[in-house]
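Subject: mismatched residue count in predicted assembly?

I count 836 residues in my input, but I want to confirm that the predicted structure covers every chain. Input:
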Amino acid sequence: MSDMHAESVAFVRDTAIPAAPPPMAETGAVRWVRANLFSTWANALLTVASLYVIYLIIAAIWPWLTNGVWTAPSLTACREVLQGKVGGCFSVLTERWNQLLFGFKYPSDQYWRPGFAFLMLFAAIAPVMFFKLPHKLLIFTALYPFIAYYLIWGGTILIPVVALLGFAGGYVAYARLVKGNFAAGLFGAIAAAAVIWWIGGMVTDAIGPARPWLEEVQSRDMGGFMLNLILGVTCVSLSIPLGIVLALGRQSNLPLIKGVCVVFIEFIRGVPLITLLFVANVVLAYFLPPGTTFDLILRVIIMITMFASAYIAEVIRGGLAALPKGQYEAGDSLGLDYPQAMRLIILPQALKISIPGIVNIAVGLFKDTTLVSVISMFDLVGMIRGPILASTEWNGVYWELFSFAALLFFIVCYGISQYSQWLERQLATGHR
Amino acid sequence: MSTITDPDKGGFRVSHLLSDTRYRAITFQVIAALVLFAIFFYLGRNLINNLQAAGLGISFGFLQEAAGYDVGQALIPYTSQSSNWQAAKVGILNTLLVAVLGCLTATVFGVTAGVLRLSKNWIVSRLMAVYVEAFRNVPVLIWILIIYAIMTVSLPSPNAFRGDDPASSMLLGAVAFTNRGIYIPAPVWGPGSMIVLGVFVASVIGMFAYRAYAKKMLFQSGKLLPTGWPSAVILLVPTILVFLVLGRPIGLDIPVLSGFNFGGGIKIGAPLIALWFALSIYTGAFIAENVRAGIQAVSQGQTEAAAALGLRPRRIMNLVVLPQAMRVIIPPLISQYLNLTKNSSLAIAVGYADITATLGGITLNQTGRAIECVLLLMLFYLAISLAISAIMNIYNNSVKLKER
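Triage response: the counts match. Full output below for your records.
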């Protein structure tokens, strides 16, 4: 029986065949290349053309980078070292490094001051950028403008201290009075700050030391990439509050206030920044009392802040418009008055929606700070076009200098835009 | 605590000005008006005092005086003896020229890069991403200066075209790239050339009429007429026939080397090229992002539905995706055009004679009429911006989704 059975069933497989690997063409790198680079004839042609373009770019840049000369006192010396080979003369960057970063008038023994202020900038903006950090760090952020001002400009320490006291006094007055009425809090704060500044100004004039701890540096001595950073950071931080006020004004149902805000925003958005810089440079002086000396950097900060705030106002208006009407009605039905509803319900949500737009404006604004070179301020681009390219040693070193400037701006702006995308992902989770 | 009470009908007390919603709005606006008036009064008084101290008054008489400076490139007759007003007009035309040229090329760059960035080809989409990021994150002023440096430093001088075995030669024997600018052939309008132009304009109109007819046929009867080759035939054949029949009335004036420079042809100066190219490649990067966002905004379901109806990929793109994407793309596209126009004021950095460089630059410095010049300058840009936003509003209303 058993024999017969053994013959009737020749073979029974009792284990599964191990899975065969997929064909070579359908796996791993080969599949990826076939799918992504050579899926059709047109695609293959595009791939080859792109590879050729990349080859051309690298072939042009590679020897320029690798043969680069980093230590030579002048362009002619550089050419001697190169002996006709293709190569960059990067020694202009090492030779003029301090000028590119700080301008050509900032006292060279004081470079540590802006450097230190720059390092502290990271500590100051970290709690603003990353919400998860402890909120107590915001105290340092609030102190930072005064510290940075004192480090960069120097002079008597009484000026930033008085300014700080004014803000502190204003805040105390606001906190006391806001419980009754927002308007009372606001005007009380303004009055308190004004009184403190007025008294502080007299005190400073009276007891200002003849020899301050930090040597005073004039505004016109600022330059280089430092100037771009000063303008960018100051104007962005000033223009956000102003932009919020303008956006609320434009939404207001008081015709006069709405009209003023609309005219201001549309006017500023309709003209190029350069014309506003011309105003700062040559026209603004006509509108100030005779004999007022008002340094150029401050005038430029005012104009750029106005410019940026108009754009930020439009972004925030978008955020306000995107909120469902129910949020406004909910605020009303809870019995909140206008400032309370705005502060507690509307603005936190509207600002959250507008953050990516505001960051875009900030990047654009930072790029636009190079425009001050047109009104003969020596920012990074102004330094390159003016003192460095005009000097006898470095006349004709275009590529190295402009690539350096482009690289610096690229690092900052690309970093900010990557941050903005990260932030958008972080904030998006709340809405799902 | 708060209870609803009947509004206090009669009786007005001073405290109502702040506490009663009926009067509060008026109070605030009166305060705002007073503050505004005070600010303007203060600024105006300072202005009058300063002008009196400087012995100046506001007057636009300087516009009629001789400008006394030369400009590199002018579209209308201009000499250094022409008036400041003529210089301003030269500047206006130059601004409009670079704006129009820049918008055209920026659109081409932007649409190409935006579409290629969505390509399934990995290397192409990466390359376009690099282009977009590199140009969006570097100030346009630096790009203008870099391209201007390429134009003036890297291109050969006209002298290099000299001799039997020149170091440089002209492209197709007709276009010369020199460090002073690019020389291209100029058309010479012979007798009868107007007829050729007229026929060409008529064929352009005819082509659009044919395409409109084909679309109408498609929507009415579902019959698909070919549009590609008939358009080309309508556009080209009549014009070429007339051109040949009339004995080639339009000739070309090819630039030739004479003396130290090229003569004949049209010279496009290095500043114009630098500004034009830099603005269009910079704005193109932004447009590419808008185009990409617009195409991605059309939901995948639309493409799938069209495919389920049996449409081919190209037709899906043309009939389903693009018409919907356009609604998203056009508004930011127009605001990019506006940005390009405003950025063209950077011409002053490379010495291109646009309105900012003539009226806001040299005229301002020579006459010292800062207020008048800057005012006119701002009004000009403001007029352009308002005109473009008016067009944008009209467009937005016309493509608005018709809902309920």
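The longest strand of chain B covers residues 181-184. Marking this ticket as 'not a bug'.
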